[in-house]
């Protein structure tokens, strides 16, 4: 396109973090197909009314979802917008001089998006305009194009621009999701590492294995995934180049090799290793494979992830008697405990602004996703489901994806970062877990 946690209930459970996760996955319902479905589960009362008018079309358009429909769905899934159904619109303008603001005010709309699509050969060009209904002025006008086979990318791009024009925050609809599915047949398991659009569409299988695949993590440039694979019979960490499919095994020490997390420069990984007898956090230089030990304690230290500065990191430790979130402001600083609200808090995932850290939180025998405000130390439980794990924050900090159960199904659920609106992404059949949200790549 061109433009102009696992859920352990005891400290001992953390020693076998990835083996316990395997047990959870194997116990799930069978079968998984590549593409995810979309299921809106909860709206937000404060959502902004916006009318995405069906775009006018010149030339033969590809079959499938219309670009305006994809934009409408994207804005709905953010939890911040409530698009008007096309059948309720009083008119269908395609350019600014056809917009009658009185009609849109009558319908209670704050914004209206209009556009035109033109096909020339194998190229589709979109001209689109966004209007503030109350102020009766255009706040966005742009042209973008894509190949006929990439209209979903074009639609997500428009969604990003509309989202940013209204909120002032970059949209994340053009980013990707990585996740793991499990298919079981005749007593055999097949694990698939997959990458899709944020709405679950255009999924591609990147790796298949009859052994577990865990903890996918995106490189800062969005071109590589690090993950844990048991394909050799024990956990090892791999780096996978998505364009070529080339894979490199970079950590295969005795014991645990787990929880990879990219450094902000893309040249190093945090990881958990037990090669010296205890689970500790290490930093590995990818090119030289040199290691630097960042924690040194008799307890179990695991699940590291860099903070927004790229200098410090969060991790899970049972040094206080149960799994809790800790933070080191630099590699050599003393750890500071972050969570206190329950006996189990694990798998930290900070936002990009240094305001919040999200994690798995146990309360009354249920596991939820919670967050702590790092300035006020206030803790908020965000989810209403009871078997939640593996949170991942969208790169713009406005949404959160996690794995949970809906009845007998294992699904991915996306919520607004404040715990508001939600939608789920179940596999067409069976089990889907371990979500990871890609960065925004310019």
UniProtKB/TrEMBL annotation:
The protein's name in its UniProt record: Tol-Pal system protein TolB
Signal peptide stretch: 1-34
Role: Part of the Tol-Pal system, which plays a role in outer membrane invagination during cell division and is important for maintaining outer membrane integrity.
SUPFAM superfamilies xrefs: TolB, N-terminal domain, Tricorn protease N-terminal domain
NCBIfam families: propeller_TolB
Complex and partners: The Tol-Pal system is composed of five core proteins: the inner membrane proteins TolA, TolQ and TolR, the periplasmic protein TolB and the outer membrane protein Pal. They form a network linking the inner and outer membranes and the peptidoglycan layer.
Keywords from the named record: Cell cycle, Cell division, Periplasm, Signal
Organism encoding this protein: Marinobacter salarius
A family per Pfam: TolB_N
Location, primary (coarse class): periplasm
Gene name of this polypeptide: tolB
Domain TolB N-terminal: 37-138
InterPro entries: 6-blade_b-propeller_TolB-like, Tol-Pal_TolB, TolB_N, WD40
């Amino acid at each position: 396109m061109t433009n102009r946690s696992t859920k352990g209930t005891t400290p001992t459970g953390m020693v076998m973090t990835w083996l316990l996760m395997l047990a959870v996955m194997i116990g799930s319902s069978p079968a998984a197909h590549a593409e995810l479905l979309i299921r809106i589960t909860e709206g937000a009362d404060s959502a902004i009314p916006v009318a995405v008018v069906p775009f006018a079309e010149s030339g033969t358009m590809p079959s499938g979802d219309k670009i305006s429909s994809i934009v409408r769905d994207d804005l709905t899934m953010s939890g911040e917008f409530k698009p008007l159904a096309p059948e309720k619109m009083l008119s269908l303008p395609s350019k600014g001089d056809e917009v009658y603001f009185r009609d849109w005010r009558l319908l209670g709309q704050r914004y209206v998006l209009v556009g035109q699509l033109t096909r020339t050969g194998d190229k589709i060009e979109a001209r689109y305009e966004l209007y503030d209904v109350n102020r009766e002025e255009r706040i966005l006008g742009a042209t973008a194009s894509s190949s006929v086979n990439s209209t979903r990318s074009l639609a997500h791009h428009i969604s990003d621009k509309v989202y940013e024009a209204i909120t002032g925050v970059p949209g994340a609809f053009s980013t990707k999701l990585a996740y793991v599915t499990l298919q079981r047949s005749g007593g055999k398991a097949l694990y698939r590492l997959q990458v899709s659009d944020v709405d679950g569409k255009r999924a591609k299988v990147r790796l298949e294995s009859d052994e577990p695949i865990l903890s996918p993590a995106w490189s800062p440039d969005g071109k590589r995934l690090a993950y844990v694979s048991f394909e050799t019979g024990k956990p090892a960490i791999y780096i996978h180049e998505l364009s070529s499919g080339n894979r490199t095994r970079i950590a295969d020490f005795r014991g645990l090799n787990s929880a990879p997390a990219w450094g902000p420069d893309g040249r190093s990984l945090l990881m958990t290793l037990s090669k010296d007898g205890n689970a500790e956090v290490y930093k590995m230089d990818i090119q030289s494979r040199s290691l630097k030990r960042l924690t040194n304690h008799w307890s179990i230290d695991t699940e590291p992830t860099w903070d927004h500065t790229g200098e410090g990191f969060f991790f899970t430790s049972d040094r206080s008697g149960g799994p809790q979130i800790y933070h080191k402001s630099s590699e050599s600083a003393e750890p500071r405990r972050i969570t206190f609200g329950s006996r189990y808090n694990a798998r930290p995932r900070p936002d990009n602004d240094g305001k919040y850290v999200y994690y798995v939180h146990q309360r009354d025998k249920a596991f939820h996703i919670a967050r702590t405000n790092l300035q006020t130390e206030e803790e908020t439980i965000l989810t209403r489901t009871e078997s939640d794990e593996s949170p991942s924050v969208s790169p713009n900090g406005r949404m959160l994806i996690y794995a949970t159960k809906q009845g007998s199904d294992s699904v991915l659920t996306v919520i607004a970062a404040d715990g508001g609106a939600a939608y789920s992404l179940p596999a067409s059949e069976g089990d889907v877990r371990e979500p990871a949200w890609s960065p925004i790549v310019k």
